[in-house]
Specification:
- The complex is a heterodimer of chains A (about 120) and B (about 150).
- Chain A is of the alpha/beta class.
- Chain A has one domain: Transcription Regulator spoIIAA.
- Chain A has four helices and five strands; from the N terminus they run ββαβαβαβα.
- Chain A has a five-stranded mixed beta sheet with strand order 1-2-3-4-5.
- In chain A, strand 4 (about 80-85), helix 3 (about 90-95) and strand 5 form a beta-alpha-beta unit.
- Chain B has about 150 residues and is an alpha+beta fold.
- Chain B has a single domain (about 10-100, about 110-145), classed as Heat Shock Protein 90.
- In chain B, about 30% of the residues lie in helices and about 30% in strands.
- Chain B has helices at about 20-30, 35-60, 110-120; strands spanning about 10-15, 65-75, 80-90, 120-125, 135-140.
- Chain B has a five-stranded antiparallel beta sheet, covered by helices on one side.
- In chain B, strand 2 and strand 3 form a beta hairpin.
- Chain B is globular, with a radius of gyration of 15 Å.
- The chains are: A alpha/beta (about 120), B alpha+beta (about 150).
- The interface between A and B is medium-sized, with 24 and 28 residues.
Chain lengths: ~120, ~150
């Protein structure tokens, strides 16, 4: 993966919001880019933001913090954010930080559009 | 008593782009000791959080300061294990003030120290004599993954 690759591999509309597929490892070197993208998205008032992490093999707490900030912005605006496709290593940090019960986490994109 | 030499010593500048280099070095070493992928991933995360905290809090995101990461296999609580030390020349803080936050308070940030303490068996922050901070982390291998040598 080149450092210049976009962290958002896919950004496409769904019935009630937007679907994002993220790409590559997310640490302090890339989380600011993710934060900016999510700030822009949450400001648009989407009812649902689906974040697919199937192609994210690693995430640290800077990435998790970015998702927490976006989740809180979505909830404040009356919207929803759903995570899907978490690999074991990524799921692990949500469990260690006890955020696995705070986020809506489902297996795949299809489940995320209905959660 | 002189501290036993480390098997691996890395020095990076405080640029986040080099976090992946530290993770790769530590995880490769741990794989050689038979740690499974899940445990390697957790230790990698602890080291990543330690170095990230140095960059963000020790150096206020300055990108031209040194960070040392050292690794050696060593006994931990009478069991085979390993030690990882992270040192910097950043701001000094009282070690007792470095603690994880209350996880009931869901908000962005502040998770690094909690994660490190959850993953590693021993965690100790000290002030370095020459300035900066030193973080000592140790973890015992599980019986199932303990190296035979």
């Amino acid at each position: 993966m080149s450092p210049n690759d976009s962290i958002i591999a896919t950004n496409e509309p769904i019935e009630d919001g937007v679907y994002l597929a993220l790409n590559g490892e997310i640490d302090l070197s890339r989380s600011p880019e993710l934060r900016q993208s999510l700030i822009n998205l949450t400001a648009r008032g989407h009812q649902r933001i689906v974040v697919d992490l199937a192609d994210v093999p690693y995430m640290d707490s800077s990435g998790v913090a970015t998702l927490v900030e976006a989740l809180q912005a979505q909830r404040k605006a009356g919207g929803k954010m759903v995570l899907c496709g978490l690999q074991d290593k990524v799921r692990s940090i949500f469990e260690i930080a006890r955020l696995d019960m705070v986020f809506t986490i489902v297996d795949d994109r299809q489940a995320a559009t209905q959660a | 008593m002189m501290e036993q030499a480390f098997d691996i010593e890395l020095c990076i500048v405080s640029k986040p782009v080099y976090l992946c280099v530290v993770r790769a070095a530590i995880s490769t070493a741990l794989e050689r000791f038979g740690l499974d992928e899940a445990d390697c991933g957790k230790v990698m995360l602890a080291v990543d959080e330690a170095v990230t905290n140095v960059i963000r809090h020790g150096y206020d995101n300055a990108e031209d300061r040194p960070i040392w990461v050292r690794f050696k296999p060593d006994g931990v609580n009478g069991k085979a294990g390993f030690v990882i030390v992270v040192e910097d020349l950043g701001k000094q803080v009282e070690p007792e003030l470095i603690r994880g936050r209350d996880l009931e308070d869901v908000r962005p940030g502040g998770l690094g120290v909690h994660i490190i303490k959850q993953i590693m068996d021993e965690v100790e922050y000290t002030k370095r004599e020459g300035g900066g901070m030193r973080l000592y982390m140790a973890k015992a291998f599980d019986a199932a993954t303990a190296p035979s040598t």
